[in-house]
Batch of 2 targets.
Target 1
Amino acid sequence: MPANISPIFPLTPKVQISSVLTTANTAKDGTGTVVQISAVAGANGAFSESVEALPIGTNTASVLRIFLNNGSSTATATNNILWEEVSLPATTLTEIAGQTKIVIPLNRAIPAGYILYAAIGTSVAAGWRVRVHTGDY
């Protein structure tokens, strides 16, 4: 009989908000200037629903890269994998319209001890904040 045939759901929801990303990182291997965007996945792993990027003012266009890290140093390329990337539009601060929020659906399990990090491809003026919706099993 197959094992693990019952659906499971996160037991402990988590929402983490990153520090502001403004500095370019052209490395595609998770090294260099990266910002931790998720909590460490719990002892039974975690489910990562989505990542949301929110501009906090006027920025030039860039790219957001999401890296999955095995819980060890991000300075070692073999500890990281590029998980997702998405274009970030140029944004203009205004008081009459909402800023563009970028949503990256993930809907993937994360092994115990793993962490998500983010980087942007070009330096920007105001910056982007990244919000991650996860939950430990």
Target 2
Amino acid sequence: MDTKPVYEIFFNPDLKAVVMNWHGYSTSRQLKEGSEKMLSTLIEHKANKVLANLKEMILISTEDQNWIEHSFIPRGSEKGFKAIAIIKPTSYFNRVAIETIASKVENRDLMQIKHFDTEGEAIAWLNEVEIKRS
């Protein structure tokens, strides 16, 4: 039996970023709980960057996509969340959902978002990214 948690969230001091690892399917409650934990960890450590490994994440519902875009991201941006490196989901439908959210958020210039195939590429970008001051 697989007992891997739906998500793991922690601060990586070497990267100076919050790391989120998502596994499998998450309920709406779990998605919101994990997202809020990521934001509180970011605030606690005065960080502004996130490494989001969504490779194993299965699906984000339309309602949750709207919540991320219209509620979570604007609040996060106000609290200092400025850059996210996303390791792309292998699930086609989740990849489309993530890319759709990202394009809408980028159009509002709330944060820098970049998608990667590997963790190494994502980490390299996070180490080099210049945070835009609002």
